[in-house]
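Worked Example 4.2. Consider the chain below.
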Amino acid sequence: MGNFGHLDYGSSILGQVVIPVSNTDGCLPFGTEMFDKKGQEAIFQDKVALELAIILVDVGNCSVVTKVRNIEKVGGKVALIGKKQREDWDREQSTLPDDGSGHSINIASFLVSARASKAFKKTYS
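Applying the procedure from the previous section yields the following structure tokens:
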């Protein structure tokens, strides 16, 4: 879980996972064209299959806070940061680090294993 932001602890999260077709690491601000039709409907037209738009991006290339901030700005309600390989993150590290600018983040963020990330991507496609 992200070690930053203002979150409602104790609440449930139920939503639809959306995966960008470009900017897959979430390091750039998102635009409509970075999502397929299903993602565009969930995020920009609020046609979410469940309750929240959950956006999955890959680990690396920029700070976690940058990724989560970009997800929040585009309308995502939860950020999933997915490993690409087992070695992408220290096994003992279960919290996502704050780069010092995470105080203004208001959505939840979670690190997911490479196995879970691949399963989400397989299910999504």
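The mean pLDDT is 85. Strands lie at 15-18, 52-58, 78-82, 108-112. Compare this with Example 4.1 before moving on.
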